[in-house]
Every structure is written in C-alpha cells, then in structure tokens.
Amino acid sequence: MMIKSRRSFLKVAGIAAIGMGAAPVMNLAASDSHGSTQPKTAKNEEALHAKRWGMVIDTSKLTEEVVEAVKKACHKSHNVPDFNIEPDAEKYSGNRPARDGQEIKWIWDEHFHYAFPDKEDEFLAEKFHDLPFLVTCNHCKNPPCVQACPTQATFKREDGIVLMDYHRCIGCRFCMAACPYGSRNFNFTDPRPFIEETDPDFPTRTKGVVEKCNLCAERLAKGEQPHCVEASEGAIVVGDLEDPDSEIRSLLAEHYTIRRKQSLGTEPSVYYIV
C-alpha cells in the first residue's frame, strides 16, 4: 500500500509539473519526511531567516576535541552511516552489504594543502601543517552542482542554502563531478544498516543516492542553530552574509579570512579565520 501511495504521489507530481513548473513540485515532493531536507516547519514564526546564509570557522579555536565533537554532532543527527561499524542485521535482508572503501561525510577535517591547494606557500607557517581544517559543503553563491543536476534533485533556496531532494536523485553523480570541493558522497550500498542509532527526526537515505551537508535547514526552520555551531564551542558561527549588522559580518570585518578555491568563481559561503 505504501509503495502504491508513493507511486500515485509521484504520478500526480509529474503531471502537475507541466502546469506548475519543476520548482513548486520539487518543494511539494520535499515535504515527504522520508526523502528530503526541506523542513515541514518552514513557516514557523520562530524560524531563523537570512538573505544569504554563510559560515565563519575560526581555525584558532579548532582543537582535536572540538573537531571530533562537531563531526559527531552533525553525523549523528543526520543519520550519516559509519561503514567502520558492523552492520545491523535487522536493517537489511539478503546478502551482507558491501562497504569496502566507502565513506559518507557531511563535515570532516582536512589538511591545509588539500583544503587550500591554491594557497600553498613554500614557507607556509608550520602551524598550518598541523591544524585540523573543518571542511563541508560551501553552499556556493554560484553552485556548479545545481547546474549539473539533470533532475533538479540539487537546488539552491532563495536564502543561499543548497539542498537535495533525495526522491529526485537518480544517482548519476553529475553533481559530484561538478563540485570542486569533494563535498558530496554517493551511497553505493544501503547506508541504513551502518547507522548506529537512527534519529527519527531526520530522513535516512537509500542506495544510489547522493548526500551532503544541508546547513541544518531543519533546525534553522525551528529557530535553532546548526548542530556544528552548538558543538564547536564558539569556533563556528552561522549568519546572514547580507546583513551588515550580523555577527558573521562583524567577524569578517575584524579578521582576515580565506575561502576554498576562491578563484573558481563559485563564491563559497564558508570563510576561515586564519
């Protein structure tokens, strides 16, 4: 019955696309709690709003403990699988799911010369070689992933957040090829058996789907800060890049910051204080 209902829904959505255009239908599909990061509470009066969301990461405050806490908070709340654990036998049937070499990550630590290859210097300060740089989706102002996606499974909201509608993803991985930051991951196998403790408040993904950071759009819609911000002990700030009076703009005015692969013209919305 569930399968039949979903097929009926997709059929109606497809017909509606003729008269309504893809974006409205995409948003309608995104309201399904099993497949999208589009929050149902988008009209909540307590929701946090911005003309263009951005993030500032203060690298001087990134200790190993903070980095691990941020990754854990993000991945646990968004049901990101860990292929290093033994799979839950109750969550799959048939053959044991393959996992060799697989990794799904929404936010992770990276060495400076990998995160900022265009800023490498022969006499780079020694501290930068050892600093753990947290990297994630940059929610670019000009996101190449959106242009590459043939089904509009990847789309950018008016507030600058680049989201995914998992129902629309056909697993072509064009978005992965287009993203110059390696911020997208593909589920080669069912990820659900590798989730140690499933969070019922966020949808799980399926085999053949791409996923990435969504800037905790579901929390912003409820008036809450992203998980990474809460776990970072002040190292991460998220705010409105278009608001000159916002905290994030004050940080950008007070500190020298860099962005990843800025020369590509994607206009990343994540800044690093160095």
UniProtKB/TrEMBL annotation:
Subunit structure, interactors included: Heterodimer of a large and a small subunit.
Signal sequence residues: 1-29
CDD domains: PsrB
GO cellular component assignments: cell envelope
Location in or out of the cell: Cell envelope
Lineage per the UniProt record: Bacteria, Pseudomonadati, Thermodesulfobacteriota, Desulfobacteria, Desulfobacterales
Protein's name in the database: 4Fe-4S dicluster domain-containing protein
Domain of life: Bacteria
Keyword check for Signal: yes
Principal cellular location given in the protein's record: other
Residue ranges of every copy of the 4Fe-4S ferredoxin-type domain listed in the record: 160-189
The UniProt record lists the keyword Transferase: no
Keywords tagged on the record: 4Fe-4S, Iron, Iron-sulfur, Metal-binding, Signal
Alphabetized GO MF terms: 4 iron, 4 sulfur cluster binding; metal ion binding
Species name: Desulfobacter hydrogenophilus
